Amino acid sequence: MTEPALRRAARAEWGPLLRTGWSALAAKKLRAIPVTLTAVCVTLVFQVVQNQPWGYRPIQNIGSVQAYEHLWLALLRTPLSLFVPALDLPVWGALAQILVVFGLAEICVGWRVMFAVAYLATLAGTMYARVGLWIGPDSPIGLPDADKYVIDTGPSAAVVGLAIFVSWRYRAWFTCGLVVAAMVFEVLFIKSNLAGKEHIAAVLAVLVLCAVWEVWQPGIPRGAARVSGWGRRR
């Protein structure tokens, strides 16, 4: 593929999405993504607090989800679990993902849809952990018993779900497929752990949502997301 053809393909893939994001930021700057900035600040505060000798347990009590706990407690903690970053990963990576992906989603589909999709993706991972333990380690989609004590994935499942949803809304099919393929590759060839399989659960949940949305409201044009996103009063 020649360079002009690559540029045309890149413009077709990312042009509408980037124009929407850029126009919002140019017009309102950071005021275009207030909910995203709040999410970044909450995640940073949680990270700082949970690394204090006195702060780990309180953060775990309000935002840590493990499969051995009662379901009602997990559901109660799940919304805040979106903002509790993993202790074994650099927090700056999580903050950058939230800022970029949540920010684009807030601009393109509105903060209500953004949070609904993020919660769906996170909840799908939480519920999968319980189903996977019930299936057991003998199945490729099951989990070993020890995973019931592993803390569920934090913001990453929400980030993955939002990336797929926004890509679908803007018909950025290559990007959507790339995110799905990366999650499958992670499980098959890098780490087939709880977090990786929860990402797959998030992917499947959001793909089902996209399919249902497509049937319910078929033929959404590439720019239609602007009507329900930044261009609409929220």
Structure description:
The chain is mainly alpha-helical and 234 residues long. 71% of the residues lie in helices and 0% in strands.
Specify the number of helices. 10
Could you say which structural class the secondary elements and strand pairing correspond to?
Answer: mainly alpha
Taking pLDDT < 50 over at least 5 consecutive residues as the criterion, the unreliable ranges are 224-228, 230-234
Q: How many β strands by DSSP?
A: 0
Largest sheet: none
Q: Please, what is the average pLDDT? A: 89
Strand content: under 5%
Please tag this protein with its features.
single chain; 234 residues; mainly alpha; 10 helices; 0% strand
State the gist of this model:
This protein has 234 residues and is mainly α. The protein has 10 helices and no strands.
Write the layout of secondary structure elements.
Blueprint: H1 3-28, H2 34-50, H3 56-63, H4 71-81, H5 91-109, H6 111-135, H7 155-169, H8 173-190, H9 194-216, H10 225-228
Helix pairs in contact: 1-5, 2-5, 4-6, 5-6, 5-7, 6-7, 6-9, 7-8, 7-9, 8-9
